[in-house]
């Protein structure tokens, strides 16, 4: 060590001691909201980190014990034992290294742009070493202006990782660079439900019933996780390669400015505002330690949702809860059966007016030839879903919806095994022919080639825990395997 | 030892005068996240490669310090902390040995910014911290890790000496203590920092780590 380096760490004389004694500090009352949020995130991060530290070690211990017990029982030879143990430890090392692995867009090959939103783009990407295709959502950090939004994304991401539902799209990767956040999600080759509807105009009731049942299950699973979607619409239901439905896009959009109940803004201004923020926000995590219940006391009252599918209580700034999603489902069922959404007007304003006065504007759809597009049961269900929130079906429990006569003959537990009405014909893993062609362009991504979690000037440095890779599954897999 | 006695026991002071920083720090040293066997958590797990273990822990401690220091950036300014120090007795000057050879006196936020960026660059460098499979660590990896730990320690030292009030006001003392305790167990287990470097927090370290001996 050079002497110059040693100098950096020296005792200083009393003069500077006096100086540093004079240093003034800000008092706590001045702590900014920003700092408080950072503290909250930091505490959560630390709690989780230490939980992980200890669970990692005990799981690791269990894994090796299980391996040894298994070998003992199966009377594995000495050399076999040695070999297996060595393999096991190299797997553990592999896991540790993966925990450090810094994912970036360099790990992915961009194939095409498959979607675009107000503040995010979606790309079909390939991870060559795994021959795996994913839908990569890229969010620009500049547009996430508040730490709240960052927190939402972070919480959202957490739920997407944790969920174990067949009806919700999975998150495989999340990482960041200097300019963007990336969410690598399951790539579902069947495209979205909107594209399907656009092609077919409307569906036979039997077909609609199957899709709608799957949608109900998806929403049920999301609610179980403590989420309200708030932006259910055809484009957020994707179709997987087997033709089943998966719900996506929970809570990634920009959160619209929170507006209180007695917000004096006139409607016109509100509309103006909502236009500016592009398609408004989706779901929001309830501010709860546990994500697994929706407490009635904690309602949300910010504006969200696509105008055609949005519940009236959201528009009138009333408190709302999970039943807003049932309203949107009602709109969706109407659309599937009739070909149009129930409240659509010539302008956005008109649509919103129609929604607010839904009691007057909701009509049984009829065709020019006089044919009726839906059964009595279907119409009954729709009117019970497009009802005032206090009377809306599903208000107390989603089983109210599932038990409606419309669903007669639906085996709720076995829907995944029923052959879907439409099974996409897929040529290969990167076939994107079921996607809206507007976005198709060979894309080269600008990659900000900086460190993955860049320090300080990066506004998101406090979402270090954002980085995630599915490699965590290795641990699970491994654990399960060795338990056998 | 029960959970309660661990958090509530008043420990006899080791001749530390009331009102001194070391005294203050000792007073709060008992507050941890109650996570227990941190001294066992640092031990190299059976069958693990030492460098791999050092590497993953380096990244973890870096992240923790990044988070913790991030919460006090509002209080640690070029005004409040004109010179990077650990209390009045210790000052740190910055040199990275490459672009800056002559140690510079910097404000704490500047110093810490450079320090963290310097570490970040190393963590991102595939030749130093290989993250892909099949690549091995450089020969001098352990000496690099030692320098990283020595520098990370200085951030803890600055936080304890100059911002412990801020930390307690934010209710983060248990988090900082847990992190630092874990850090020190790790440092001790793998002999990463020389004793003279640890001087600014000597008493605190004693207090934090002595539980284990009982």
Automatic annotation (TrEMBL), chain A:
Enzyme class: transferase
Residues at which ATP binds: 137
GO BP terms: cytoskeleton organization; intracellular signal transduction
Database matches in Gene3D superfamilies: Phosphorylase Kinase, domain 1, Transferase(Phosphotransferase) domain 1
Keyword Cytoplasm in annotation: no
Family the UniProt entry places it in: Belongs to the protein kinase superfamily.
Protein name, entry field: non-specific serine/threonine protein kinase
From TrEMBL, chain B:
Signal peptide: none
Alphabetized GO MF terms: kinase activity
Keyword annotations of the record: Kinase, Transferase
Taxonomic superkingdom: Eukaryota
Pfam families: Mob1_phocein
InterPro entries: MOB_kinase_act_fam, MOB_kinase_act_sf
Alphabetized PANTHER family for the sequence: MPS ONE BINDER KINASE ACTIVATOR-LIKE MOB
Protein name, as recorded: Mob kinase activator 1a
Species this protein is from: Anaeramoeba ignava (Anaerobic marine amoeba)
